[in-house]
Amino acid sequence: TATTTQAILPPTFDFEQINTYTREATVNILCSTKGQELSPISGTGMVVSPDGLILTNAHIGQYLLLKDFIQKNFVECVTRIGSPAVAKYNLELVYISPTWVANNKDLLRSSDPKGTGENDFAFLRITSSVSNSNLPTTFPFVHMDIRENIAKNEDVILVSYPAGFLGGLSILGDLNITSAVTTIKDIYTFKDNTPDLIAIPGTIVSQRGSSGGAVMDKYATLIGII
Prior knowledge:
This protein is mostly beta strands. 12% of the residues lie in helices and 32% in strands. It has a six-stranded antiparallel β-barrel. A five-stranded mixed sheet has the order 7-13-12-8-9, with helices on one face. It starts with 14 loop residues before the first helix and ends with a strand.
């Protein structure tokens, strides 16, 4: 039985319906800092469980490792929802890949960071409302699919909050959720016979800020993050 806040799985392989379903579980993660040591960051996350667990990239989640770095609440991260995005929930870090952290210690200080995507994941959790109101009993969420039979030329839909072409004030007031249907062009592995990296053509979603956004298949399940 679904509550009024819970995302409903589309009954057909209709990307318009999948887009609507996915958008309900897509959040913007906005982290700001006190001082000039770090630049603010805007990224995307996917709610993957009804209790508010969020899957995103480690290069976004790492900001919460520095929450009290120089002073209390030196870094503040909020979850924003809607289009345009508005601040809704406070966050905490649940898990970040320790391997990624160990291998990317200098990434925060880089003006043009790059990576392969290997181990670049983290889990956050919604802890409270920014308005101090009660949290929903159930959050809209997408189902993760860890199937190993992803195929080339498979159609997918991307959903995220791209911010690469926006200035700071626009990100604060005019950041909108964006979607694009595309096709898997190649599949790469970091080990043996595991589909670890999905290659897709460039789309309007191919901007900074889309990190952590959804790659959804025709079954309305999450098969990867941007």
